[in-house]
Amino acid sequence: MLDASIKKAQNVVVGIKQTIRSLEKGEVSWVYLAQDADAKMIRPIREMCAARQIEIKEVPTMSELGKACGIKVGAAVAAVLIS
Predict the structure, then answer these.
(1) CA distance 68 to 34
(2) Segments forming the whole domain that contains residue 45
(3) Cα(1)–Cα(41) distance, rounded to whole angstroms?
(4) Which of 31, 46, 66, 82 has its CA 20 to 30 A from that of 10?
(5) What pTM did the predictor assign?
């Protein structure tokens, strides 16, 4: 089951481009990655998180992550921003 913190978080970005942008700006507390997302697409995010020592939380499916983020489509990645 998905960690409830993403549902309670005030500042969340959803999607690969938005997450990369936020990582580059140093705004990310932690990242959620869907396990069924395309590995090639999310590899840069994994690498950026490793380099910046940002925690990655795995979510079983893109649809579950999308639902937790309040969108009707699946999401490969979401990031909780520093408050």
Answers:
(1) 12
(2) 5-81
(3) 24
(4) 46
(5) 0.90
Sheet holding 55-59, edge to edge: 12-14, 77-81, 28-34, 55-59
The CATH number given to whatever domain includes residue 38 is 3.30.1330.30
Between CA 28 and CA 83 the distance in angstroms is 9
- HEC assignment per residue over 18-44: HHHHHHHCCCEEEEEEECCCCHHHHHH
pLDDT one-digit tens code per residue, 55-73: 999 999 999 999 999 999 9
Strand partners, 59: 34
pLDDT digits (tens, 9 = 90+) for 1-52: 566 667 777 799 999 999 999 999 999 999 999 999 999 999 999 999 999 9
Q: Note the maximum CA span of the chain.
A: 32
